[in-house]
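Supplementary Note 2. Why include the ligand at all?

Several targets in our set were suspected to adopt different conformations when bound, so apo predictions alone were not considered sufficient. For every target with a known small-molecule partner we therefore ran a joint prediction. The input for zinc ion is given below.
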Amino acid sequence: MSVSNKVTHVLITFAFVASLWPMAIDAQGRGGGRPSPADSRNLRGVLGGVPMTAADSAIKEVVDLLDFESYKSLIQGLTEFGDREQGTPRNAAAVDWIEQTLQGWGYQTARIHYDYTPRGSDVAEPREEVYATLVGASSPDEMYILGGHMDGRGGGEAANDDASGTALVMEIARALASPGVTSARSIRFALWNNEETGLNGARAYVEQRQGLQGIEEPAGSGNYPEPRWLGMVQHDMMLWDHGNPVTHEQALDADVDIEFQLNSVMADASAQLALALLNANRMFASHYPAVMSNAMSNTDSGPFQDIVAAVSLRENRRLYETGNRANPHWHQPTDLFVTFSDDDFRLGFNAAQTTLGAIARLVDAKVER
Ligand SMILES: [Zn+2]
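The joint prediction is reproduced in token form.
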């Protein structure tokens, strides 16, 4: 399709949606619009025709453990706790649910305890967040950290910000707990709290654990409570790329935005990690491409960016798109599970395929036969 035809098509689609709103919703409900996985264009990566080596095919076996319906149901599970605003009973209940779910897949979990002083108060209050670890078989002392923030705000369900990123990290954890999966290096699944108040949960993690990296405890045990950090990948607002001005459906050019921070000590290593994710997207994402850019901001990878390679994945670039109202549900009561369509959920799912494709290669994960 030529560019001018595509533009015409977009305009016609928009006019159609505007005039026949209920019908458009119905068509979307039956899976209209975006090509299905059976579409021949999508059989070999979102850009099509990227040749796969035997090593790539082994990574694809790991990525194929991800399940779209499981991802959606994890988002739904988190939204049942409302917006999970920090300091509320629904936030504490969600931390418990996340921990129990991870334990149910066989993971050992741990909690970070820290103090947070609410705005307008001078009394510090205790807060908690949970993480789980896949321990590497041959290099348990090295790890990548995958993050999403389980707290939200806005009075709705914080489905997109950030149940979508929390569920993404949990779905990768679930997939890697499947029978036969092995990993040479470790992976930590971190579900940050207090992101919305200023990244306090991620900052507490860095403060408490940066100095523990690589220490064997007790000596000679082969047990590393804080494996050495190789990189950190954050996921924050994963579902909605409806263009700006905002349209009713996922934009035809919707993509996963991979951001690193150019103005950081680890910019070079972070750009390399972003590139690994971009290449994994070309190979393993089923429906949406990715782009990388250099203005990572306002999320839990920030406290890591001067220490280790750090990137964030999002539905939109944080400063230039999200910051310019590209998502009208951001921090609103309308950030609800029912607000989003399968085309939206699939963007988050493609970010999961992107992250797992890159990380499986970096930790040398495999499905053993
Ligand atoms: Zn967020």
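The chain is about 35% helix and 15% strand. The pocket of zinc ion is lined by residues 149, 161-162, 195, 236-237 (CB under 6 Å). Comparable summaries for the other entries are listed in the accompanying table.
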